[in-house]
Every structure is written in structure tokens, then in C-alpha cells.
Amino acid sequence: MTPAIPLNDGHSMPALGLGTYPMANDEAHTAVMSAIASGYRLIDTATRYGNEPGVGQAIRDSGVPRGELFVVTKLPGADHGYDETLASFEAARNRLGTDYVDLYLIHWPLPRLYKYVDSFRAMSRLRDDGLVRSVGVSNFGAKHLRRLVEETGTVPVVNQVELHPRFNQAEMREVHRSMDIVTQAWSPLGRGDVLDDPTIVRVADRHSVTPAQVVLRWEVQLGVVPIPKSRDPHRQRLNLDVWDFVLDEDEVVELSALETGRQGGDPDVHEEF
Ligand SMILES: NC(=O)c1ccc[n+]([C@@H]2O[C@H](COP(=O)([O-])OP(=O)(O)OC[C@H]3O[C@@H](n4cnc5c(N)ncnc54)[C@H](OP(=O)(O)O)[C@@H]3O)[C@@H](O)[C@H]2O)c1
């Protein structure tokens, strides 16, 4: 059973979930169905992934009551702005075919455009209207977070950022801790690229688990919520099964020492719409 992590608005979120990028609708439907059957309750999608219909259909077909699932989607850059956000969300909600979304995130801050404050105000209204349970962000840097809170008075519950052994986000984790924001990890397996690292393989052998389980367990012990993507039912099951072993402090430090730097976009300059 996946533990729950408390959020700063009184709701809670499963401590590990399934990523769905890049999956087309059919593939997302199959993957989300098998993930839910093996116990996943947090599903991460985004309007930009183009698979909200497949994810939503799987949620309805899964047989698991909607209230037991935690569905995350994200506002694309093209729809930043107050009215645009309201319209974009309504379209996303229709594609998902769900009454409400558990967590709505701003996908990237796009600081040059600087409309994320307007978008966040609209998201807070969606929350007040009961269409969104919790509001959060993704790929925000410390100054974007502070500006958001200064201007709106609302602290996002989550910041979903790139995080894996090659980029452990020590600084942002500390910022999140000080602001009571949960760190969610995208590319938590480094897109699979870190799994043959000799340190990770050695720790995995010591615990008789897979390298992916070691990496996900390391993230859990850092207080981070990983959302590994897998289309494979066997790997999905293993990725969720990280609650019965514990890395010792030295092993946590060893994994944290694999830092080389970010692989994805820099939130200060990355633009995608
Ligand atoms: N907010 C953002 O800007 C942002 C950006 C990127 C991603 N995301 C989200 O984060 C999710 C996860 O990130 P990601 O997909 O980039 O990378 P990831 O989860 O780190 O890695 C996924 C890759 O690892 C493979 N894999 C999964 N489990 C494995 C295992 N146990 N052993 C070996 N290989 C394994 C998968 O292949 P198989 O499918 O074949 O198993 C896939 O190729 C995305 O799906 C998306 O939902 C968000």
C-alpha cells in the first residue's frame, strides 16, 4: 500500500505515481489500466501530452472509485493568462471526462511571458469552485515560487521538477521544505539512463532489488514523490514496490554524490507552449 503525503492545503497525495509521457491515448489507456490494477493511485498527465482522453478512459474503466485516485494534469504555456487558464482547464476536464482534477499544475513558469501569476489566480478560483482539489506548479525556480506567493498569497502544494541521481535538486528541496511545498520528481529514473550506474547496481544487489527500486527508494527517503513512467506491467509493479527495504545513510549519500547536472530545460529560459 502506497503511503500518503500530506499537502499544505489539508489534502494528501500518494507518495509515488505513474508518469504517462510520452504515451499516445491507446498506450496511456493500457498503461494506466495495468498501473491501477497493480495499486497505483496517482496518475500524472498534462494537456501537452495529448493523452488526457486515454488516461481519463482508463480511470473510468479501472473499476476503482474516482475518490481513491489522484489525477494530476498541467496547464500548457499556450494557455497562460486568467481567462485562458479557465478555458484550458475546462477543455482538459472534458477530455479527462472527470468532475474534478486532484492537482492542477502550471507546466512551466515561462518567466519572459510572465503570466504565471494570472494563471495561478485562475487556478485558485477553480479550486474555490471545487473543480480542482489542489493547485501547484512545475519547473518553478525559487524566485518564481516567491513571486507567486507574494502576489497571490497562496503557496502551491507541489513543485514538480526534474530530479534523479544525476540531478538531485538539493537547493530546490531546501526551498520547498522552507515553504511547505512537496517536491515531485519528473524523470525520477533519469529516463532509464542512470540504471546501469555501478554504484546503483551495487546497492541494488546488496538489497536484492532492481536498480530502479533503489533510485525510487532513495527519492522516497529524500522526501520526494517520484512519478516513474513505464509502459511495462512488470516494471510498473516493481517500481511501486519500494516500501519494504531501507537504504542506510551511507547509501543515500552515495546516490546523492552521483550529481552531474540537469538534463532537461532550465526554468529561467525554457519555453514550450
Ligand atoms: N513537468 C514536466 O515538465 C515533466 C517533464 C518530463 C516528464 N514529466 C513526467 O514525469 C514522468 C516520468 O519522467 P520520464 O518519463 O521523463 O522518465 P523516467 O520515469 O525517469 O524514465 C522512464 C523510462 O525508464 C524506463 N523504465 C521505467 N521503469 C523501469 C525499470 N524498472 N527498469 C528499467 N527501465 C525502466 C521506461 O521504459 P518502459 O516504459 O519501457 O518501462 C522509460 O523509458 C513522465 O512520464 C511525465 O509524466 C514531467
TrEMBL record:
<dbReference type="InterPro" id="IPR020471">
    <property type="entry name" value="AKR"/>
</dbReference>
<dbReference type="Pfam" id="PF00248">
    <property type="entry name" value="Aldo_ket_red"/>
</dbReference>
<feature type="binding site">
    <location>
        <position position="107"/>
    </location>
    <ligand>
        <name>substrate</name>
    </ligand>
</feature>
<feature type="domain" description="NADP-dependent oxidoreductase">
    <location>
        <begin position="16"/>
        <end position="258"/>
    </location>
</feature>
<dbReference type="InterPro" id="IPR023210">
    <property type="entry name" value="NADP_OxRdtase_dom"/>
</dbReference>
<dbReference type="InterPro" id="IPR036812">
    <property type="entry name" value="NAD(P)_OxRdtase_dom_sf"/>
</dbReference>
<feature type="site" description="Lowers pKa of active site Tyr">
    <location>
        <position position="74"/>
    </location>
</feature>
<dbReference type="GO" id="GO:0016616">
    <property type="term" value="F:oxidoreductase activity, acting on the CH-OH group of donors, NAD or NADP as acceptor"/>
</dbReference>
<dbReference type="InterPro" id="IPR018170">
    <property type="entry name" value="Aldo/ket_reductase_CS"/>
</dbReference>
<protein>
    <submittedName>
        <fullName>Diketogulonate reductase-like aldo/keto reductase</fullName>
    </submittedName>
</protein>
<comment type="similarity">
    <text>Belongs to the aldo/keto reductase family.</text>
</comment>
<feature type="active site" description="Proton donor">
    <location>
        <position position="49"/>
    </location>
</feature>
<keyword id="KW-0521">NADP</keyword>
<keyword id="KW-0560">Oxidoreductase</keyword>
